[in-house]
Design goal:
The protein has 328 residues and is mostly beta strands. Helices cover 0% and strands 53% of the residues. It has one domain: 7 Propeller (Methylamine Dehydrogenase, Chain H), CATH 2.130.10.10. The protein is built from no helices and 30 strands. It comes from Virgisporangium aliadipatigenens.
């Protein structure tokens, strides 16, 4: 039987964005944990988890769709199709020159490092200084979905069009998901196909093992191996490649996965079309938080801790950001 994580009633929602919310990230602003959200009009808002309302002044960060937000080394980083920019979350002012003027798509961060796919390369920067730490050419145009350090080495999860030599029968809407050893510029594990156009994922440490949490399944040789719908979730050991667990879901396509430690347990928070779910990665149990406050389908999710309380922020396609505390 699934063990559910109860979610307290949501605080009143703020006015939110005038455009659909495209991304949300945890930040530290004025010394306090909170959230930042970006929309398809180029605006960034900051949010107070305790009230669920916007705080401070918006940032007119881009002229169009914000494709990625990340917080690294005390700096807020945002991307659109034309540039990757840095901002001081306390003042909203730009920090230095853009990291890239070729656009960045999705962003992912760990510690003081931020990663993006730009100009055909997967690049990693030190966010405060803007210095390039890694620069890995990609074989094809790809979307970055996750970035972390595995045994001190940078690893990344990308999705792109299938390699027709490896997968000659792949449909046009499928995506090839690759977990990269960025420093070596080689796949850490054999690539996998997903039967839809997202292939999202995240990294997590589960019971002392470093795992990839992703929405694909394996292709082996010339035959499919237990191909699930991409709405299902899989847990794979990066050291061995073993698929440790599979979670069958019925809540729509996955748009984003965020992993956080809640009361000592790694929890995968899933932004799906029909709401936000939580999967206990160690106990292999699922929770489905109440997301009735969301007006549109859920596009993104982020998690932060405030004074020992875990807050989850979910952005939707109607311009709303719903923030709720999770209580185990």
């Amino acid at each position: 039987m699934d063990q559910r994580i109860e979610v307290a009633d949501a605080p009143p929602r703020g006015v939110g964005h005038a455009e659909p919310v495209s991304c949300v990230t945890a930040v530290v602003r004025a010394g306090r944990p909170g959230f930042a959200s970006g929309d398809q009009g180029g605006t960034i808002l900051f949010w107070d988890p305790a009230t669920g309302r916007p705080v401070g002044e918006p940032i007119a960060a881009h002229d169009g769709w914000i494709t990625g937000l990340a917080f690294a080394g005390g700096v807020l980083i945002s991307a659109d199709d034309d540039a990757i920019r840095r901002f001081d979350p306390d003042t909203g002012r730009p920090v230095g020159e853009p990291l890239s003027v070729a656009g960045g798509g999705r962003l992912a961060a760990t510690g003081s490092l931020v990663a993006a796919v730009t100009d055909g390369h997967l690049r990693v920067w030190d966010a405060p200084s803007g210095a390039v730490v890694e620069d890995m050419p990609l074989p094809r145009r790809a979307v970055l979905h996750a970035f972390a350090l595995f045994d001190g080495r940078p690893v990344a999860l990308t999705a792109d069009e299938p390699d027709r030599e490896l997968f000659p029968d792949a449909d046009a809407d499928m995506r090839l998901v690759t977990i990269w050893d960025v420093a070596a510029a080689t796949p850490l594990l054999p690539p996998h196909l997903t039967p839809e156009d997202r292939g999202v994922g995240a990294f997590a440490e589960v019971a002392g093992r470093f795992m990839a949490v992703h929405s694909t399944d394996a292709f082996s040789g010339d035959e499919w191996t237990d191909l699930y719908e991409a709405g299902h979730l899989h847990l794979r050991d990066l050291a061995t490649g073993e698929r440790v667990a599979t979670r069958e879901r019925e809540a729509g396509w996955i748009n984003e996965i965020e992993v956080a430690v809640v009361h000592g347990r790694p929890i995968a928070f899933i932004a799906a079309e029909e709401g936000v779910e939580a999967w206990d990665l160690e106990r292999d149990t699922r929770a489905a938080p109440d997301v009735e406050g969301l007006l549109g389908s859920v596009s993104c999710v982020a998690v932060t801790d405030v004074d020992g309380v875990t807050f989850v922020a979910a952005g939707d396609n109607d311009g709303g950001v719903d923030i709720r505390p999770h209580a185990a």
